């Protein structure tokens, strides 16, 4: 029998690996948690919402400034498999970083199938460039900017790390002080055979241009690659594959499974200033 990808010969097998909702208990509603924490962040913290970084209505970002001047900055890229959710669903990621004196930026982007992954990648890079050029107006330090993202946002984080920042944006070639990728997708090939394909519409060109595991460039940005221990073996393999490629290019990365975490709880650490995630970001941004 012909396999679709690696050792998978049916869409059902691939969906079982890549649809994280299939493994949830019916009583588990992760988006309710994110919505509640997001609402709390927007009501309890000072924030600047829906600032445009590009010409279309979806190209906006939200800033949660720290209460200290010249603060380090963390830019968060949300997940949703490039076809769902928005920046407003993840305002809560600012809750753990604010007490540490870190400004948080949560970016929004257009979604598939209205735009392609190429365009989402372009928008994400444009948002990062906007942060470097404008964050000082909001009390942020453009020399200490880290980026991170979850799921599809982990993929987009990796795409930011392979950006030719000097050539395309006139910035330093490696401007990011740190990066963290949660449960990312770095090899997009299996997703073309999944339940996602009607929405994300992958083809050979999109997969080739947007599979960062196979396009790593030398980069001095320290990277933390993490995923949940209760996630599927494919999410673990994706992280390991990217880690191996990143290090093969001579770059620095830490690969760490989060024991007991699933695909949704893996980013809960961003809500807790004492978590390893927040402490790693604080230390990385402080030593820049």
Summarize the structure.
The chain has nine helices and eight strands. It has helices at residues 11-18, 30-44, 117-134, 152-161, 165-169, 197-200, 204-209, 233-248, 276-286, and strands at residues 48-52, 60-64, 71-77, 103-107, 140-150, 178-182, 223-228, 253-258.
Describe the structure.
- The protein is an alpha/beta fold.
- The protein has one domain (31-286): Alpha/Beta hydrolase fold, catalytic domain (Rossmann fold).
- It is built from nine helices and eight strands.
- It has helices spanning 11-18, 30-44, 117-134, 152-161, 165-169, 197-200, 204-209, 233-248, 276-286; strands at residues 48-52, 60-64, 71-77, 103-107, 140-150, 178-182, 223-228, 253-258.
- It starts with 10 loop residues before the first helix and ends with a helix.
List the helices and strands and how they pair.
Layout lengths: L10 H8 L11 H15 L3 E5 L7 E5 L6 E7 L25 E5 L9 H18 L5 E11 L1 H10 L3 H5 L8 E5 L14 H4 L3 H6 L13 E6 L4 H16 L4 E6 L17 H11 L2
Parallel strand pairs: 3-4, 3-5, 5-6, 6-7, 7-8
Antiparallel strand pairs: 1-2, 2-4
């Amino acid at each position: 029998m012909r396999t679709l990808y690696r050792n998978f010969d049916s869409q059902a097998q691939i969906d079982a690996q890549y649809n994280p909702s299939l493994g949830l208990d019916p009583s588990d509603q992760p988006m309710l948690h994110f919505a509640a924490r997001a609402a709390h962040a927007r009501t309890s913290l000072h924030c600047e919402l829906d600032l445009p970084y590009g010409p279309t209505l979806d190209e906006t970002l939200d800033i949660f400034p720290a209460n200290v001047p010249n603060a380090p900055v963390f830019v968060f890229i949300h997940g949703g498999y490039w076809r769902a959710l928005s920046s407003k669903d993840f305002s809560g990621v600012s809750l753990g970083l604010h007490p540490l004196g870190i400004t948080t930026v949560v970016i929004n982007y257009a979604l598939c199938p209205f735009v392609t992954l190429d365009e989402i990648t372009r928008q994400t890079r444009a948002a990062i460039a906007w942060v470097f050029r404008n964050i000082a107006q909001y009390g942020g330090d453009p020399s200490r900017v880290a980026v991170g993202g979850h799921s599809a946002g982990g993929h987009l984080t990796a795409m930011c790390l392979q950006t030719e920042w000097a050539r395309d944006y006139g910035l330093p070639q490696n401007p990011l002080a740190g990066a963290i990728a949660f449960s990312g997708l770095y090899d997009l090939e299996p997703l073309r055979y999944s339940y996602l394909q009607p929405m994300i519409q992958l083809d050979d060109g999109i997969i080739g241009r947007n599979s960062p595991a196979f396009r790593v460039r030398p980069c001095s940005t320290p990277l933390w690659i993490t995923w949940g221990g209760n996630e599927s073996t494919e999410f673990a393999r994706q992280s390991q594959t990217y880690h191996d490629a990143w290090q093969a290019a001579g770059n620095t990365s830490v690969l760490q499974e989060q024991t007991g975490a699933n695909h949704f709880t893996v980013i809960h650490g961003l809500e807790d200033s004492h978590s390893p995630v927040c402490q790693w970001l604080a230390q990385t941004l402080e030593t820049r």
